[in-house]
Amino acid sequence: MVGRGWTQKGGRPHAETEALAQAGSAAKGATAYVTLEPCAHHGKTPPCAQALIDAQVARVVIATGDPDPRVAGQGISMLREAGIKVETGIFEAEAQADHLGFFLRVLHGRPAVTLKLASSFDGRIATGTRQSKWITGPQARRSVHTMRARHDAVMVGGGTARMDDPSLTVREMGARQQPARIVISRRLDLPLMGNLARTAKDVPVILCHGHDADGQLLETWQGLGATLLPCAVTGTQLDPEDVLQQLGTHGLTRIFCEGGSALAASLIEADLVDHLVGFTAGLTIGAEGLPSVGALGLGRLDEAARFQLTRLERLGPDVLHVWARSTPEI
Predict the structure, then answer these.
(1) Of 16, 37, 241, 258, which residue is the catalytic one?
(2) How far is CA 321 from the centre of its chain?
(3) pTM of the full predicted structure?
């Protein structure tokens, strides 16, 4: 192994040039293994395919192609035309899963969404008096912090932000970079003295709001350091599809949604959830408790979105179960 690289913060430099810089002259005659087809277009930096050609590597092994129309096979063609041996499709399914958010943003303009629900055995996230700390145990909560660290942003609805006053940060994990915090709130009626407001200059806060939000609140949140994204309204709520389009335009590719129930229902109803993560605790709260997912208006079972189980494990007293959408969008 003469060089390793990964795409740097902000999307540049790309992985290939990082690895080539580390390898130096040892790259000549070597094999480069890449998870994604090297880019072929001039952007902020020259094409990675050209960098590999200039370094005189002998062989490039590519897990999956790049659907970006500026690349889309052109990187592979450049390498082959330069006499470099190219192999493709190695661990392709794994690479596509890893790059899901990037592919969805290129193909559909939106980031990948993982919806996390921590609930009682009967699917409640709080009691009738809205008490919710803590339904799950410390192992489950630590696992949540690990999952946050693997995403670009953590997202909640306005109701959750008002009721829980969350920090939405990665704690006790030695995180070098915090995910952005997103709140979906049409009218921006959020605590101005809460955790998110107090830390907006330290860790990014993105507020998705309606065009009819109060102008004074907009100015106040901007002054606190938040990024404001105006989004379309459907009925009385923000349109979840437009919210994700705006977040995709903002550059996000992987979002970890932690509820609440109304936001979870809107994302599921709009078929915008790619993975479900459930933490289920061994207690029951009853019908008076707050359900983990709000009303979906389903009349038939065949109208419900189906997900496939991909992971199941015990975390202390709780159970973790992870599900993927049955019909991938890529």
Answers:
(1) 16
(2) 18
(3) 0.91
Reported residue count of the chain is: 330
Cα maximum dimension of the chain? 69
Cβ-in-10-Å burial (0-12, 13-18, 19+) of 79 comes to: buried
How remote is the C-alpha of 54 from its chain's centroid? 35
Query: Cα 64 to chain center, whole Å?
Result: 20
Work out the number of other CB atoms within 10 angstroms of the CB of residue 197: 19
User: Which of 263, 248, 235 lies closest to 329, judged by CA?
Assistant: 248
Cβ(158)–Cβ(189) under 8 Å? yes
Q: Catalytic annotation on 241?
A: no
User: Digits of tens for pLDDT over the chain (330 positions)?
Assistant: 999 998 887 777 889 999 999 999 999 999 999 999 999 877 667 899 999 999 999 999 999 999 988 888 899 999 999 999 999 999 999 999 999 999 999 999 999 999 999 999 999 999 988 888 889 999 999 999 999 999 999 999 999 999 999 999 998 877 678 999 999 999 999 999 999 999 999 999 999 999 999 999 999 999 999 999 999 999 889 999 999 999 999 999 999 999 889 999 999 999 999 999 999 999 999 999 999 999 999 999 989 989 999 999 999 999 999 999 987 777
Sort strands 233-234 and 180-184 into parallel, antiparallel or unpaired.
unpaired
Pairing of strands 318-325, 307-315: antiparallel
Q: Crossing angle for the helix pair 240-249 and 100-108, nearest 10 degrees?
A: 110
Q: Summarize the chain as % helix, strand, coil (round to 5).
A: 30, 25, 45
Tokens for 41, please give them: 């277009």
Cα–Cα distance for residue pair 113/245, rounded to 1 Å: 12
Question: At 230, which helix (H) or strand (E)?
Answer: strand 227-231
Q: SS3 letters for 21-82?
A: HHHHHHHCCCEEEEEECCCCCCCCCCCHHHHHHHCCCCEEEEEECCCCCCCCCHHHHHHHHC
